[in-house]
Structures are given as structure tokens and as C-alpha cells.
Amino acid sequence: MDSGKSCEQKSLVNEIIEGMELAKQLRLCLNAKSSADTKQFLVQRILSSYEKALLMLKCGGSPQSPIKAIASAPESLMSANEGPCCVDNNRSLQDHQDLTAVSKKRKEMAKWTEHVTRVISENGIEGPHEDGHSWRKYGQKDILGAKHPRSYYRCTYRNTQSCWATKQVQRSDEDPTVFEITYKGKHTCSHGGSSVPPPPSPEKQERKRHNHNNTYQQQQSQGNQMSFPTNLRVNTENLDDRENTTSPFSFTSSPFGSISDDAFLSSMLDDKSLFDNFNQSLLSPAAGGSNYYFELPSQMRNIAGNEQRSESDIISANNSSTNSPIPDMDFPLEPVELDPYFPFDSPGFFL
DNA sequence: TAGATTTGACCTTC
DNA sequence: GAAGGTCAAATCTA
Fold it and tell me: To 5 degrees, how large is the angle CA A128–CA A278–CA A254?
């Protein structure tokens, strides 16, 4: 399939270009008075980019290559160029076609799983895991052998932007504070990772329900306040597929220039999508299936705590079973010392 | 009133 | 046939 190949090449070139851009940024950082963390982060990003590119090259010819898997995913069956009018005008027919396509391709759909530990804020409200996208719940199902029902979500912009990303959220049996989130498909909508706060996330919505009528949750919350989770565990499956998913990590072009570190961190935490994308990006095993460990600096946690932020998911990832060329990328971020002139908004920095 | 959630029914896969 | 996934009408909420 020619379009598939060109898509591969495009992705590959994009990765390489990104790596180059990041290297340029690193060079600027080396010249400027940037912190070691900033540099280390850039190095990590560069390595990640090239690692992805290498993986694409390695897998490019394989029939089971992740790129081809993505290309066969239902979301790709409908061109992203198809506007809402197409969706609306041929709704019933298209729905049927989509349904068929989804059914046929369900097994091949890009899929990965995150285990998200919900964080309990100081006010006892459980913090949901925001992923920077807005989701609409379309179903809930009791799963055999599972204590908790599984919830099904799809992108809010599915109809308007033909975004076929979906996710399933299931509370863990062993640890009710852990949510197993399975993502399917890639976001093609332009809303992911934007600095505009998304509508309430599924987890938030679930929290709302639980706050209404679930004393268990409240007890859990109160109990967990004393043991504030300092990390969030992300396990990944089907890493090859994850490889092809977007990593919408992107700083907005907001003027970081003159803000203090605390202000910067606060702004990061204020911008849920930004913060989650930050986590997602760091956690993304896109580079060949590595599980990165990321622990927020205490400074960040303090900010989150002081603001009684319920969204302050603090994330880590298991380092088990990594096949990443990057050996155990543990890099706990110390309080970030940002170069006030660091060009976050320069094109290509965070893609 | 528009948009989101709930939930029973239906469809697909195994 | 069972289980998982999705649809869509009814209901809720801001």
C-alpha cells in the first residue's frame, strides 16, 4: 500500500526531524544557563526520537510492523480529511460501514494499557487521571470475573473530527485505587494536548458519581490521604502498537519567559492536559517499549498539594521487562530550574 | 436546551 | 452460547 509506505516514511522523517530540533534545543541549553534537568530531559527526548526512528526502520518491512498495524486500524479507514459534512450526510451508511470495519479490524486496532493509580488530594477528593483528551462515555459493562464494571469511552470529537480513539477504564480488583485504562486507536482530533482544559474526564465523571453515593470511596480517600501515592504505575502492552500512537506532549507557547520555577510548575499543574501530556510523553514507551520511571520532584508535589489539586497524578512506571536501548531511564526530576529564555515555543521542541 | 451519562438491547468474536 | 464491545433511546445536568 503506497499510502502506508509514505505514511511510514513521513513518520520516520518526522522523528528524525524532531530529534534534530531537540538537539538544537539542547545546544541552546548548553550555551545558556539551563539546569542539568532540562538538558537531561532534552537528551531523553532526543534519544526517544531516534529510538522511535530506529524502530520504524527495523519494523518497516515486517508484515506485523506497528506502522502497518496502525494503518489498518479502523480510524485510518476513514480519511481524517473527511469533514463533518461527510460524516453527517452519509451517517447511516457510514455507520454501518464503520461498524463492519471496526468489527473486522477490532483485533488489529492499536491498543495499549495503562495502570493508573488515582491520587487522593488533601481534601479527600480522588484525583482522576487526565490524559489531555476529552472523552464521552458510551457504555458500561460488567466483566466476567471482575468486581467492577468496565466503562467505555470514545473521543468527544469522534463525529466532528472523525477521531476514532477509544478507551476502556476498569478499576482494578486488587487495588480499587488503580484504574486500568486501555487505549485503542490514535487521536486524530486537534483537541488532544491543547492548553484548553478539556471537558471533565471519564475518571472525573466517575469520581462525581462516587462522591455522590459511595461511602467506600470516601473512606478510601481518607485512608489514602495519609499515604499519598507518589507515583503512578504505567504498564504497557502491545508496545509496538503504542509506538504508533501520538504522544501529544506539547508545551503551549505561553510566555514562560519570566515566571519563576514555582510559577512554571504551577502553570504546568494548572494545565491539566499539559501536565498529563508531560507525563504521557515521559511515560510513553514509544521508544521500543521502555518503561520509564518518572517521579515528580517534591516541589511539584508540594505545589499540587498546596493547591489541593485533585488531578495531581504522580506517575511512575515499572522498569520491568524493558527492551529499550535506553538503559533504565530513571531520572527523577529535581526541582526544575528553567532557563527563562528557554524557547519552549520554538517549533518542533515538543512536537 | 444542548451535551453528557445511563443502561438495556443488539452485534461480533471466540 | 457466552462474553465483550457498541448503539441509541431515555434520562440527567449545567
Answer: 110
Whole-number Å distance between alpha carbons of A44 and A42: 5
Q: Which nucleotide is nearest to A167 (CA to C1')?
A: C5
C-alpha cell recorded at residue A235: 504498564
Q: What pLDDT digit, counting tens, does each position of A263-273 carry?
A: 333 443 344 43
> Shortest CA–C1' contact from A209: which nucleotide?
B5
Mean of the per-residue pLDDT values of chain A:
51
Which residues have C-beta within 8 Å of that of residue A260, sequence separation ≥ 6? none
pTM over 0.85: no
Q: What is the CA A124 to C1' C1 distance in angstroms?
A: 45
Give the architecture (CATH level 2) of A113-120+130-184: Single Sheet (2.20)
Res A193 pLDDT > 50: no
The length of chain A is: 351
Whether A346 shows a pLDDT value over 60: the answer reads no
Confidence of residue A138 (pLDDT cuts 50, 70, 90): very high
The cell for A259 is 515566571
Closest CA to A342 of A3, A26, A122, A114: A26
What nucleotide is nearest A137 when CA is compared to C1'?
B5
Please check whether strand B approaches the CB of A99 to within 7 Å. yes
A291 contacts A114 by C-beta, under 8 angstroms = no
